[in-house]
Amino acid sequence: MIELKNIERSYKHAVGETWVLRRINITVRPGEFITLMGPSGAGKSTLLNVLAMLDDGWRGEYWLDHEPIHVMNRKQRSEVARRKIGMVFQSFHLLDDLTVAENIELPLSYKNMPRSERQALVADTLDRFQIVGKKDLYPSQLSGGQQQIVGVARAVIHKPELLLADEPTGNLHSAQAAEVMQLFTELNRAGTTIVQVSHSIENARFGSRIIELRDGWMTPENETPA
Ligand SMILES: Nc1ncnc2c1ncn2[C@@H]1O[C@H](COP(=O)(O)OP(=O)(O)OP(=O)(O)O)[C@@H](O)[C@H]1O
Fold it and tell me: Which of 142, 171, 212, 224 lies 20 to 30 angstroms, CA to CA, from 133?
């Protein structure tokens, strides 16, 4: 599903260049649930942002479902990302002045979908994530755990093949974190491929494979031959 070949990312500054990702080679098969781990500053979020197509400043090859992302321009990448990727953030990234239902509907606004169909999908999603009773509330009226469940619902309403999550439980208590990980497990069983960044070995246990980064390099036991 994902093939990364020799992905490299650096930041240039006045006195030189800092390397953040070095020769990253990763193959992710459909249906895998991967956890990216490693110390602070190892490059985990940077790699996730490359996968999410939120960053364009990298070199190397990125294939998604055999599509060469590395040769695409920004517009083409956005189009692929909207179609295939859902993203969950540590700080939820919900829009404060939209209700739960309106937040969840957001990814559908990019699609050419009749209003009635959009509303049916929102209703299904509210039901599936058991948040029907919260649909008219605003994010500030929800607990952190509830906000993240809305964040996950919004990320998957358009049925993406790939769910990317950057420390999705970083701002949650352990019971809330377990609930979000349980949701991920169910989505994964239903066929969604997942790549999450996490510091938590408990969270990693919900997944099928750990990839460890250190100072921008993959640790040798993870390395997939280029
Ligand atoms: N815009 C930027 N300009 C310069 N350096 C950056 C920029 N963004 C990230 N970096 C550097 O890249 C390195 C990796 O950052 P990244 O956020 O990917 O690490 P991480 O493994 O996700 O860390 P953490 O677990 O603390 O979130 C860090 O040294 C960081 O300072």
Answer: 171
